Amino acid sequence: MNSLLHLLQLTFRKVVPPPGALGLFCCIVLFSACHSASDSVNTPKKMAVIVSTLNNPWFVVLAESAAAEAKLLGYETKIFDSQNNTALEADHVENAIVSGFNAILLNPTDSDGSIVNVMKAKEAGLPVFCMDREVNASGAATAQILSDNYSGCVAIGEDFVKGLNKKGTYVEILGLVGDNNTWNRSKGFHSVVDRYPGLKMVAQQSADFDRNKAMDVLESMLQAHPDINAVFCGNDAMAMGAYQALVAAGKASDVGVYGFDGADDVMNSIRDRKIKATGMQSPQVMAQTAARYADAYIKGKRDFAQRVPVAVELVTQKNIADYLTLTRP
């Protein structure tokens, strides 16, 4: 019994701190907690801007507009280029998670393939706001700010029909087949044009929204169909590539080219009567809205509309003067 008491006394001496030590310990804990809280408050908030590609000037504007708006709102920003690769996009999302970003402003590379990347961020507690392109999953992204592509191309289709007097042959150059924008634009266009039996589409092919690919695609189409009357392109970069191909073939004055985006070079080409028309999107509005929504989320807001449409305006040779201030010389 005496041995047991002795053992208990030794144990008690080991675990009970000497006089004053308990107070010192409490002070250290409180200081550490306060210091940690102060670090949390002083740590700058950050937004990651992840875009499908920086090889297209339109997406450069989207990315830079998002970053600029986030900076105005007080956030540090970094732009990531996914190079139209969902695997690289996944690396960027992972980087944003582990690097302590507070939100992602995302221009997805693929409507289906990017879902897993958005879900990864969501599971990590990182909100994702999609810009211009969407993912095919409700509730994955916190909100998706998108151009009204379908309605914009309905307007282009109507102008296309008028321009060809309801008859003729044409080709269509599609964008990325994995992007919903590609099909929404095509469907909007065909919802009008297909009602006119005098208009016949003789070829349709993807050029991945790429200017050089579109030039190559149209060159091949012209070999099979040299007498086409018009080309409908799913974006302005491809419209410029198509126009280059027509110039090289000596057909630039015979074939009308229609685009979509409102890019500077096409706006200027409409002014110079080279391109017939385009649907002018507003990357600035989409990017700024995404940044503002992310800021609101970080500050506590949680109720966001899943899809936020942004209007598209038809720009033609008839009304280009109204938009000249939007183009660079």
For the largest beta-sheet, the strand count, sense and barrel status come to: 6 strands, parallel
- Summing up helix and strand content along with how strands pair, one would put the structural category as alpha/beta
Helix content: 40-55%
Would you list the SSEs in sequence order as H and E?
Answer: HHEHEHEHEEHEHEHEHEHEHEE
Estimate what percentage of residues fall within beta strands.
Answer: 15-25%
Number of strands: 12
List the total number of helices.
11
* Global geometry: elongated
Q: How big is the Rg?
A: 28 Å
| Regions with little confidence, pLDDT below 50 for 5+ residues | 1-19, 21-40
Amino-to-carboxy terminus distance: 99 Å
Strand order in the sheet with the most strands: 2-1-3-4-5-11
Average pLDDT for all residues: 89
Describe the structure.
The protein is an alpha/beta fold and 329 residues long. Helices cover 47% and strands 18% of the residues. Helix 9 (236-248) links the parallel strand 8 (230-233) and strand 9 (256-258). The longest helix has 22 residues, at 21-42. The protein is elongated and about 65 Å long. It starts with a helix and ends in a 13-residue tail after the last strand.
